[in-house]
Amino acid sequence: MKKLIMLVILIAVISNAQEKNKLMIDERSGKPMLLGICDRTAFADTNFSWWFDSEYENYEFSIATLDSIKCKLENITIKMVLGTWCSDSRREVPRFLRLMDETSVSEEKISLICVDRKKESPEGNVDELDIKYVPTFIIYKNNQEIGRIIESPGESLERDLKGIIYRK
């Protein structure tokens, strides 16, 4: 009986598990795009690494600004909604992830949700997020939204993030 219960639980967990890094074909370009819940390993795929790696490596950021926000990131989580087909996402997402690495924000505090050109995703509850443009970086403190960076930063990613964090 115990084995049967464990088997039922295992099947339920497997069937409810979300598939990460799901590749679809973009109908407009005919090229692969990511859709749904993703993790950073998706950007190692050659379909995405050609833009991700160069933006990540070449982003020049303000060390002083990052140093001023490091201590404020403890209760911060970030939800990133992006389109791998979108030039703004291709530019800003690698840069933002570089900042998170530089400030030692753990991957568990960052959610990546990839959407199609209609800003839809089968996973990630995108409908509830009111996404009009990508990328959208939603910043949460203690599970409450405190601000967004939408499409491209006003000043720079790190300065805009500092403004959001210090505002609350």
Low-pLDDT windows of residues: 6-17
CATH architecture: 3-Layer(aba) Sandwich
CATH class group: Alpha Beta
Distance between the termini: 53 Å
Count of DSSP H/I helices? 5
- What is the string of helix and strand elements? HEEHHEHEEEH
CATH H-level homologous superfamily name: Glutaredoxin
Q: Characterize the largest beta sheet: strand count, sense, and whether it forms a barrel.
A: 6 strands, mixed
Apparent shape: globular
**Structural class designation:** alpha+beta
What's the gyration radius in Å? 17 Å
Number of strands: 6
Please give the order of strands in the largest beta sheet: 1-2-4-3-5-6
Overall mean confidence score, pLDDT: 90
| Total discrete domains | 1
Range of strand content: 15-25%
What is the strand and helix layout of this fold?
Blueprint: H1 2-16, E1 22-25, E2 32-38, H2 46-58, H3 63-69, E3 76-82, H4 87-102, E4 110-114, E5 136-141, E6 144-150, H5 157-167
Parallel strand pairs: 3-4
Antiparallel strand pairs: 1-2, 2-4, 3-5, 5-6
What does this structure look like?
A hairpin with a 6-residue loop joins strand 1 and strand 2. The protein has 5 helices and 6 strands. The chain is of the alpha+beta class. The chain has a 6-stranded mixed β-sheet, with helices on one face. Helix 2 crosses helix 4 (87-102) and helix 3 packs parallel to helix 5. Mean pLDDT is 90; it is low at 6-17. The protein has helices at residues 2-16, 46-58, 63-69, 87-102, 157-167; strands at residues 22-25, 32-38, 76-82, 110-114, 136-141, 144-150. The longest helix is centred in the middle third of the chain and has 16 residues, at 87-102. It has one domain: 3-Layer(aba) Sandwich (Glutaredoxin), CATH 3.40.30.10.
